[in-house]
Inverse folding.
């Protein structure tokens, strides 16, 4: 045993399993929890327990929710005929922070990855097709990440939706605001040029 307490070692091991948390960071977090007030540490434990017990998937969009449907799907101000398709719940947060989208979402819960054994049946694709048909969606925005899997998923969804009357669009990709052209990679610069549009 590396530590004087088996409980401490167990906590560090569990913290180290979290994404982007290495063994040293896990150790710092564990010692912080021991130094902080008992109320704060127990409040964290209760928050973890509550989110595991109370948060589930929205029955409509697949986003994380405490209620059915989630507050975004239930909001009458949002356009139900415009659906933005994203990979994960965290992507919904990113799009919402932009303040540029007022439609509804559909969370796939991943991307197609045949080499990892993830096919269409493992994602919320059937639910998307049914939803588009049921509500008579006007536009589906494919907002999957610009990775090989994200591109393959977007292409697959485009093919599936091509026989419906819905407009299928893809989010633009290009140079970030404030970036220098000389520092941009070739693929990003090429896509920015291909996706150019007239100045309004």
């Amino acid at each position: 045993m590396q530590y004087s307490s088996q409980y401490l070692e167990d906590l560090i091991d569990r913290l180290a399993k979290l994404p982007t948390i290495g063994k040293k960071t896990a150790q710092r977090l564990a010692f912080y929890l021991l130094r902080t007030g008992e109320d704060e540490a127990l409040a964290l434990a209760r928050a973890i327990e509550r989110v595991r017990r109370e948060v589930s998937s929205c029955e409509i969009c697949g986003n994380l929710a405490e209620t059915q449907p989630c507050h975004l799907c239930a909001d009458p101000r949002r356009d139900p005929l415009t659906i933005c398709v994203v990979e994960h719940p965290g992507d919904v947060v990113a799009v919402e922070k932009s303040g540029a989208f007022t439609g509804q979402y559909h969370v796939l819960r991943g991307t197609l990855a045949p080499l990892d054994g993830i096919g269409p049946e493992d994602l919320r694709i059937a639910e998307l097709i049914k939803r588009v048909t049921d509500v008579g969606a006007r536009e589906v925005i494919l907002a999957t990440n610009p990775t090989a899997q994200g591109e393959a998923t977007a292409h697959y969804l485009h093919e599936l939706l091509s026989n419906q009357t819905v407009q299928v669009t893809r989010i633009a990709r290009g140079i970030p605001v404030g970036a220098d052209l000389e520092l941009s990679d070739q693929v990003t610069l090429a896509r920015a040029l291909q996706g150019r549009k007239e100045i309004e």
